[in-house]
Amino acid sequence: MNHLNEAVILLLGLYLILLCRRVSGDQISGKGVVNLAHRQSKWTPLMQTSANLSDITSIRSSFEFRTFDPEGAIFYGDTKEGQDWFVLSLRDGIPEMQIGKADILVSVKGGHKLNDGAWHLLELRSEGKFVVLEVNNKEELVVGLHSKLTEEELTGKIRLAVGGMLVDKQKLFHPFQPEMDACIRGGHWLNLSTPWDTDSTWEPRPCFSEIKRGSYFPGTGVAVFNTSDLPGLKTEEAGITVEIFGSWTGTALSLQSTGFQYILEELDGHKDVKEVQLGLKEGSESVDLPREPATLTFTILKHSLVVNSKSELETESLDFFTMWKKGMLLTFGGMPGDSEATKSTHHLRGCLEKILVQGQVIDLDRALYKHAAVSSHSCPTEAMNELT
Fold first, then answer.
1. Are 229 and 350 within one domain?
2. Which of 95, 143, 281, 313 is the most exposed, fewest CB within 10 Å of its CB?
3. If we measure between CA atoms, which residue out of 290, 142, 14 comes closest to residue 134?
4. Quick check: helix, strand or coil at residue 17?
5. How do residues 284-316 score in pLDDT, each as one tens digit?
6. Structural domain count, the chain
7. Start and end of every Laminin G domain (predicted)?
Protein backbone atom coordinates (compact mmCIF):
# COMPACT_ATOMS: atom_id res chain seq x y z
CA MET A 1 0.00 0.00 0.00
CA ASN A 2 1.34 3.44 -0.91
CA HIS A 3 1.84 6.00 1.85
CA LEU A 4 -1.15 8.28 2.36
CA ASN A 5 -0.54 12.00 2.31
CA GLU A 6 -1.12 13.94 5.51
CA ALA A 7 -4.56 15.14 4.45
CA VAL A 8 -5.86 11.63 3.78
CA ILE A 9 -4.44 10.40 7.09
CA LEU A 10 -6.29 13.19 8.91
CA LEU A 11 -9.57 12.48 7.11
CA LEU A 12 -9.36 8.76 7.72
CA GLY A 13 -8.42 9.30 11.36
CA LEU A 14 -11.49 11.45 11.95
CA TYR A 15 -13.59 8.84 10.22
CA LEU A 16 -12.34 5.88 12.24
CA ILE A 17 -13.03 7.72 15.50
CA LEU A 18 -16.72 7.36 14.70
CA LEU A 19 -16.57 3.58 14.49
CA CYS A 20 -17.98 1.60 17.38
CA ARG A 21 -17.27 -2.00 18.34
CA ARG A 22 -18.83 -4.46 20.71
CA VAL A 23 -16.71 -4.91 23.81
CA SER A 24 -17.23 -8.62 24.26
CA GLY A 25 -18.17 -11.66 22.24
CA ASP A 26 -21.11 -14.03 22.69
CA GLN A 27 -21.58 -17.76 22.35
CA ILE A 28 -23.58 -19.29 19.50
CA SER A 29 -24.52 -22.72 18.25
CA GLY A 30 -22.43 -24.13 15.43
CA LYS A 31 -25.47 -25.80 13.87
CA GLY A 32 -27.48 -22.72 12.87
CA VAL A 33 -27.19 -20.34 9.93
CA VAL A 34 -24.18 -18.05 10.32
CA ASN A 35 -23.17 -15.11 8.14
CA LEU A 36 -19.36 -14.97 7.98
CA ALA A 37 -19.29 -11.36 6.78
CA HIS A 38 -20.10 -8.10 8.59
CA ARG A 39 -17.16 -7.65 10.94
CA GLN A 40 -14.06 -5.49 11.23
CA SER A 41 -11.45 -8.11 12.11
CA LYS A 42 -9.77 -9.71 9.10
CA TRP A 43 -7.77 -12.65 10.44
CA THR A 44 -9.44 -13.19 13.81
CA PRO A 45 -11.94 -16.07 13.43
CA LEU A 46 -15.60 -15.19 13.55
CA MET A 47 -16.20 -18.16 15.88
CA GLN A 48 -13.98 -20.72 17.60
CA THR A 49 -14.14 -23.64 19.99
CA SER A 50 -11.80 -26.22 21.53
CA ALA A 51 -11.94 -29.69 23.07
CA ASN A 52 -9.67 -32.32 24.60
CA LEU A 53 -8.40 -34.72 21.96
CA SER A 54 -9.29 -37.57 24.32
CA ASP A 55 -12.97 -36.59 23.93
CA ILE A 56 -12.91 -36.69 20.11
CA THR A 57 -14.30 -39.84 18.53
CA SER A 58 -14.45 -38.71 14.90
CA ILE A 59 -12.10 -36.36 13.01
CA ARG A 60 -14.85 -35.33 10.64
CA SER A 61 -16.69 -32.02 10.16
CA SER A 62 -19.39 -31.08 7.66
CA PHE A 63 -21.44 -27.99 6.86
CA GLU A 64 -23.32 -26.29 4.02
CA PHE A 65 -21.62 -23.30 2.44
CA ARG A 66 -22.78 -20.54 0.04
CA THR A 67 -20.91 -17.58 -1.47
CA PHE A 68 -20.13 -15.44 -4.50
CA ASP A 69 -16.84 -14.39 -2.91
CA PRO A 70 -13.79 -15.73 -4.83
CA GLU A 71 -11.35 -15.59 -1.92
CA GLY A 72 -11.35 -15.91 1.85
CA ALA A 73 -10.93 -18.10 4.92
CA ILE A 74 -13.55 -20.77 5.64
CA PHE A 75 -12.46 -23.37 8.20
CA TYR A 76 -9.42 -23.79 10.45
CA GLY A 77 -8.17 -26.39 12.91
CA ASP A 78 -5.02 -26.97 14.94
CA THR A 79 -3.35 -28.98 17.71
CA LYS A 80 -0.35 -28.32 19.96
CA GLU A 81 -1.44 -24.68 20.39
CA GLY A 82 -1.00 -24.01 16.70
CA GLN A 83 2.22 -25.91 16.04
CA ASP A 84 0.27 -28.22 13.71
CA TRP A 85 -2.48 -26.42 11.81
CA PHE A 86 -4.83 -26.63 8.84
CA VAL A 87 -6.88 -24.03 6.95
CA LEU A 88 -9.47 -24.34 4.17
CA SER A 89 -10.00 -21.28 2.00
CA LEU A 90 -11.12 -20.24 -1.47
CA ARG A 91 -8.82 -18.78 -4.11
CA ASP A 92 -10.37 -17.79 -7.45
CA GLY A 93 -13.46 -19.59 -6.15
CA ILE A 94 -11.58 -22.92 -5.97
CA PRO A 95 -10.98 -24.74 -2.65
CA GLU A 96 -7.47 -24.55 -1.26
CA MET A 97 -6.05 -26.44 1.72
CA GLN A 98 -2.90 -25.36 3.53
CA ILE A 99 -1.31 -27.48 6.24
CA GLY A 100 1.56 -26.80 8.61
CA LYS A 101 2.97 -29.85 10.39
CA ALA A 102 6.39 -29.98 12.08
CA ASP A 103 8.89 -29.09 9.33
CA ILE A 104 6.35 -29.36 6.47
CA LEU A 105 4.23 -26.69 4.76
CA VAL A 106 1.73 -27.84 2.13
CA SER A 107 -0.59 -25.86 -0.15
CA VAL A 108 -2.98 -27.65 -2.51
CA LYS A 109 -5.72 -26.10 -4.66
CA GLY A 110 -8.23 -27.94 -6.81
CA GLY A 111 -11.77 -28.99 -7.54
CA HIS A 112 -14.79 -27.13 -8.88
CA LYS A 113 -15.46 -23.46 -8.21
CA LEU A 114 -17.74 -22.98 -5.22
CA ASN A 115 -18.50 -19.25 -5.53
CA ASP A 116 -21.59 -19.68 -7.68
CA GLY A 117 -24.12 -18.55 -5.06
CA ALA A 118 -25.50 -22.07 -4.55
CA TRP A 119 -25.44 -24.09 -1.34
CA HIS A 120 -22.74 -26.78 -1.28
CA LEU A 121 -22.23 -29.54 1.28
CA LEU A 122 -18.61 -29.62 2.44
CA GLU A 123 -17.06 -32.38 4.51
CA LEU A 124 -13.52 -32.42 5.90
CA ARG A 125 -12.08 -35.53 7.49
CA SER A 126 -8.79 -37.01 8.56
CA GLU A 127 -7.85 -40.48 7.27
CA GLY A 128 -4.54 -41.29 8.88
CA LYS A 129 -1.88 -39.29 7.07
CA PHE A 130 -4.44 -37.88 4.62
CA VAL A 131 -6.86 -34.93 4.82
CA VAL A 132 -9.89 -35.26 2.55
CA LEU A 133 -12.23 -32.53 1.29
CA GLU A 134 -15.54 -33.78 -0.04
CA VAL A 135 -17.97 -31.46 -1.86
CA ASN A 136 -21.55 -32.55 -2.45
CA ASN A 137 -20.62 -36.14 -1.53
CA LYS A 138 -17.73 -36.27 -4.03
CA GLU A 139 -14.03 -36.15 -3.17
CA GLU A 140 -12.49 -32.92 -4.46
CA LEU A 141 -9.11 -32.79 -2.70
CA VAL A 142 -6.98 -35.40 -0.95
CA VAL A 143 -3.78 -34.21 0.72
CA GLY A 144 -1.26 -36.61 2.20
CA LEU A 145 1.80 -35.71 4.26
CA HIS A 146 4.19 -37.36 6.68
CA SER A 147 7.02 -36.13 8.86
CA LYS A 148 9.39 -38.16 11.01
CA LEU A 149 9.29 -35.29 13.51
CA THR A 150 5.59 -35.72 14.34
CA GLU A 151 4.09 -37.82 17.10
CA GLU A 152 1.84 -40.72 16.20
CA GLU A 153 -0.38 -40.24 19.25
CA LEU A 154 -1.73 -36.74 19.77
CA THR A 155 -2.60 -35.38 23.20
CA GLY A 156 -3.83 -32.05 24.51
CA LYS A 157 -6.46 -29.91 22.82
CA ILE A 158 -7.81 -29.45 19.34
CA ARG A 159 -9.02 -25.99 18.29
CA LEU A 160 -11.52 -25.24 15.54
CA ALA A 161 -12.33 -21.87 13.99
CA VAL A 162 -14.53 -20.49 11.20
CA GLY A 163 -13.84 -17.42 9.09
CA GLY A 164 -10.23 -16.86 10.17
CA MET A 165 -7.09 -18.34 11.72
CA LEU A 166 -5.66 -18.79 15.22
CA VAL A 167 -2.02 -18.67 14.12
CA ASP A 168 -0.05 -15.83 12.60
CA LYS A 169 -0.76 -15.31 8.90
CA GLN A 170 3.00 -15.26 8.34
CA LYS A 171 2.92 -19.06 8.71
CA LEU A 172 0.94 -19.42 5.49
CA PHE A 173 2.74 -21.02 2.57
CA HIS A 174 0.47 -19.17 0.11
CA PRO A 175 -1.00 -15.88 1.51
CA PHE A 176 -4.59 -14.93 0.72
CA GLN A 177 -7.18 -12.27 1.55
CA PRO A 178 -9.14 -13.61 4.57
CA GLU A 179 -12.46 -11.72 4.35
CA MET A 180 -15.28 -14.03 3.33
CA ASP A 181 -18.77 -12.85 2.36
CA ALA A 182 -20.49 -16.21 2.81
CA CYS A 183 -23.02 -18.13 4.86
CA ILE A 184 -22.78 -21.56 6.51
CA ARG A 185 -25.48 -23.73 8.02
CA GLY A 186 -26.12 -27.21 9.39
CA GLY A 187 -22.66 -27.60 10.88
CA HIS A 188 -21.50 -30.87 12.47
CA TRP A 189 -18.09 -30.21 14.00
CA LEU A 190 -16.28 -33.42 14.98
CA ASN A 191 -18.58 -34.81 17.68
CA LEU A 192 -18.77 -31.52 19.60
CA SER A 193 -22.00 -29.96 20.82
CA THR A 194 -20.59 -27.12 22.93
CA PRO A 195 -21.31 -23.47 21.97
CA TRP A 196 -18.77 -21.50 19.95
CA ASP A 197 -17.15 -18.28 21.15
CA THR A 198 -17.58 -15.36 18.72
CA ASP A 199 -15.28 -12.52 17.72
CA SER A 200 -16.01 -9.43 19.82
CA THR A 201 -16.24 -7.19 16.73
CA TRP A 202 -18.86 -9.36 15.02
CA GLU A 203 -22.47 -8.19 14.82
CA PRO A 204 -24.70 -11.13 13.82
CA ARG A 205 -26.76 -10.48 10.70
CA PRO A 206 -29.14 -12.79 8.87
CA CYS A 207 -28.25 -14.46 5.59
CA PHE A 208 -30.24 -13.37 2.55
CA SER A 209 -32.67 -16.05 1.39
CA GLU A 210 -31.85 -15.46 -2.28
CA ILE A 211 -28.75 -13.69 -3.53
CA LYS A 212 -27.17 -12.27 -6.67
CA ARG A 213 -23.68 -10.97 -7.38
CA GLY A 214 -22.88 -7.45 -6.30
CA SER A 215 -22.04 -5.26 -3.31
CA TYR A 216 -25.00 -4.49 -1.05
CA PHE A 217 -25.34 -1.24 0.89
CA PRO A 218 -28.31 -1.39 3.31
CA GLY A 219 -28.55 2.37 3.93
CA THR A 220 -25.74 2.61 6.45
CA GLY A 221 -22.00 2.23 6.02
CA VAL A 222 -19.45 3.01 3.33
CA ALA A 223 -16.36 1.55 1.65
CA VAL A 224 -13.31 3.82 1.50
CA PHE A 225 -10.36 3.51 -0.87
CA ASN A 226 -7.14 5.50 -1.10
CA THR A 227 -6.87 6.51 -4.75
CA SER A 228 -3.11 5.93 -4.74
CA ASP A 229 -3.89 2.20 -4.29
CA LEU A 230 -6.21 2.13 -7.32
CA PRO A 231 -5.37 1.95 -11.04
CA GLY A 232 -3.89 5.25 -12.19
CA LEU A 233 -3.75 7.46 -15.26
CA LYS A 234 -3.10 5.93 -18.69
CA THR A 235 -3.57 8.93 -20.96
CA GLU A 236 -4.54 12.51 -20.13
CA GLU A 237 -7.12 12.55 -22.91
CA ALA A 238 -9.05 9.57 -21.50
CA GLY A 239 -8.56 10.57 -17.87
CA ILE A 240 -9.49 8.28 -15.01
CA THR A 241 -12.87 6.55 -15.16
CA VAL A 242 -14.99 5.06 -12.38
CA GLU A 243 -17.98 3.04 -13.57
CA ILE A 244 -20.84 1.81 -11.36
CA PHE A 245 -23.52 -0.65 -12.49
CA GLY A 246 -26.60 -1.46 -10.41
CA SER A 247 -29.68 0.05 -8.83
CA TRP A 248 -29.55 2.36 -5.83
CA THR A 249 -30.67 5.52 -4.06
CA GLY A 250 -28.57 7.91 -1.99
CA THR A 251 -24.90 8.81 -2.35
CA ALA A 252 -23.17 6.72 -5.00
CA LEU A 253 -19.66 8.03 -4.40
CA SER A 254 -17.64 10.88 -2.99
CA LEU A 255 -14.11 12.14 -3.53
CA GLN A 256 -12.36 13.99 -0.75
CA SER A 257 -9.07 15.64 0.15
CA THR A 258 -7.93 18.71 2.05
CA GLY A 259 -10.24 21.64 1.29
CA PHE A 260 -12.05 19.64 -1.39
CA GLN A 261 -15.01 17.32 -1.58
CA TYR A 262 -17.14 16.01 -4.40
CA ILE A 263 -20.45 14.24 -3.72
CA LEU A 264 -22.60 12.38 -6.22
CA GLU A 265 -25.98 11.68 -4.71
CA GLU A 266 -29.68 11.43 -5.39
CA LEU A 267 -31.37 13.94 -3.11
CA ASP A 268 -34.79 13.57 -1.47
CA GLY A 269 -37.51 15.08 -3.61
CA HIS A 270 -35.52 14.59 -6.83
CA LYS A 271 -36.96 11.32 -8.08
CA ASP A 272 -36.02 11.94 -11.71
CA VAL A 273 -32.58 13.50 -11.31
CA LYS A 274 -29.37 12.96 -9.48
CA GLU A 275 -27.56 16.04 -8.20
CA VAL A 276 -23.80 16.43 -8.30
CA GLN A 277 -22.38 18.62 -5.55
CA LEU A 278 -18.88 20.06 -5.66
CA GLY A 279 -17.61 21.70 -2.48
CA LEU A 280 -14.42 23.73 -2.41
CA LYS A 281 -12.85 26.17 0.02
CA GLU A 282 -13.95 29.02 -2.24
CA GLY A 283 -17.60 27.90 -2.30
CA SER A 284 -19.80 25.26 -3.89
CA GLU A 285 -21.87 24.62 -6.97
CA SER A 286 -24.10 21.87 -8.30
CA VAL A 287 -25.65 20.64 -11.52
CA ASP A 288 -28.57 18.32 -12.26
CA LEU A 289 -27.92 14.97 -13.89
CA PRO A 290 -30.63 12.90 -15.66
CA ARG A 291 -31.13 9.70 -13.73
CA GLU A 292 -29.80 6.51 -15.31
CA PRO A 293 -30.25 3.85 -12.60
CA ALA A 294 -28.47 1.05 -14.44
CA THR A 295 -25.08 2.69 -14.93
CA LEU A 296 -22.99 5.68 -13.94
CA THR A 297 -19.66 6.76 -15.44
CA PHE A 298 -17.57 9.23 -13.48
CA THR A 299 -14.57 10.63 -15.38
CA ILE A 300 -11.73 12.56 -13.79
CA LEU A 301 -9.80 14.88 -16.11
CA LYS A 302 -6.88 17.10 -15.18
CA HIS A 303 -9.01 20.12 -14.21
CA SER A 304 -12.58 18.81 -14.47
CA LEU A 305 -15.00 16.11 -13.33
CA VAL A 306 -17.51 14.59 -15.75
CA VAL A 307 -20.54 12.38 -15.06
CA ASN A 308 -22.06 10.24 -17.85
CA SER A 309 -20.47 12.60 -20.43
CA LYS A 310 -23.24 15.11 -19.72
CA SER A 311 -22.35 17.23 -16.73
CA GLU A 312 -18.98 18.83 -16.27
CA LEU A 313 -17.55 20.83 -13.37
CA GLU A 314 -14.30 22.67 -13.91
CA THR A 315 -11.73 24.14 -11.53
CA GLU A 316 -8.39 25.33 -12.86
CA SER A 317 -7.02 25.63 -9.32
CA LEU A 318 -6.89 21.84 -8.83
CA ASP A 319 -4.84 19.17 -10.62
CA PHE A 320 -6.95 16.03 -10.14
CA PHE A 321 -4.37 13.72 -11.72
CA THR A 322 -1.72 14.73 -9.21
CA MET A 323 -4.22 14.53 -6.34
CA TRP A 324 -5.28 11.02 -7.42
CA LYS A 325 -1.69 9.80 -7.53
CA LYS A 326 -0.77 11.31 -4.16
CA GLY A 327 -3.92 9.98 -2.51
CA MET A 328 -7.52 11.08 -2.02
CA LEU A 329 -10.40 9.24 -0.36
CA LEU A 330 -12.72 7.64 -2.91
CA THR A 331 -15.76 6.51 -0.96
CA PHE A 332 -18.67 4.40 -2.18
CA GLY A 333 -21.96 4.76 -0.32
CA GLY A 334 -21.53 8.08 1.48
CA MET A 335 -19.00 10.53 2.89
CA PRO A 336 -16.18 9.66 5.31
CA GLY A 337 -17.02 11.16 8.67
CA ASP A 338 -20.79 10.88 8.34
CA SER A 339 -22.41 9.32 11.40
CA GLU A 340 -23.01 5.61 10.76
CA ALA A 341 -24.83 4.73 13.98
CA THR A 342 -28.18 4.84 12.17
CA LYS A 343 -29.39 4.61 8.61
CA SER A 344 -29.18 7.87 6.68
CA THR A 345 -31.01 9.08 3.58
CA HIS A 346 -27.61 10.19 2.28
CA HIS A 347 -26.02 6.76 2.56
CA LEU A 348 -26.40 4.50 -0.44
CA ARG A 349 -29.10 1.88 -0.35
CA GLY A 350 -29.12 -0.78 -3.04
CA CYS A 351 -26.90 -3.13 -5.01
CA LEU A 352 -23.80 -2.11 -6.91
CA GLU A 353 -23.53 -5.06 -9.27
CA LYS A 354 -20.07 -4.04 -10.48
CA ILE A 355 -17.54 -1.26 -9.83
CA LEU A 356 -14.77 -0.58 -12.34
CA VAL A 357 -11.82 1.78 -12.04
CA GLN A 358 -9.91 2.17 -15.28
CA GLY A 359 -11.73 -0.91 -16.51
CA GLN A 360 -10.57 -3.09 -13.59
CA VAL A 361 -13.10 -4.71 -11.24
CA ILE A 362 -12.81 -3.32 -7.71
CA ASP A 363 -13.24 -5.73 -4.78
CA LEU A 364 -14.61 -4.03 -1.65
CA ASP A 365 -12.65 -6.53 0.46
CA ARG A 366 -9.53 -4.63 -0.67
CA ALA A 367 -10.85 -1.32 0.66
CA LEU A 368 -8.88 0.78 3.13
CA TYR A 369 -11.99 0.59 5.30
CA LYS A 370 -15.37 -1.12 4.79
CA HIS A 371 -18.25 -0.84 7.22
CA ALA A 372 -19.43 -4.14 8.66
CA ALA A 373 -22.97 -3.62 7.31
CA VAL A 374 -21.81 -3.66 3.68
CA SER A 375 -21.78 -7.02 1.87
CA SER A 376 -18.85 -7.18 -0.54
CA HIS A 377 -20.03 -9.87 -2.96
CA SER A 378 -23.74 -10.61 -2.44
CA CYS A 379 -26.99 -8.69 -2.78
CA PRO A 380 -30.47 -9.82 -1.70
CA THR A 381 -32.70 -10.24 -4.73
CA GLU A 382 -35.69 -8.87 -2.81
CA ALA A 383 -33.86 -5.57 -2.22
CA MET A 384 -33.24 -5.30 -5.95
CA ASN A 385 -36.93 -5.74 -6.67
CA GLU A 386 -37.84 -2.93 -4.28
CA LEU A 387 -35.59 -0.46 -6.11
CA THR A 388 -36.65 -1.30 -9.67
1. yes
2. 281
3. 142
4. helix
5. 444 444 444 578 999 999 999 998 887 677 888
6. 2
7. 35-379
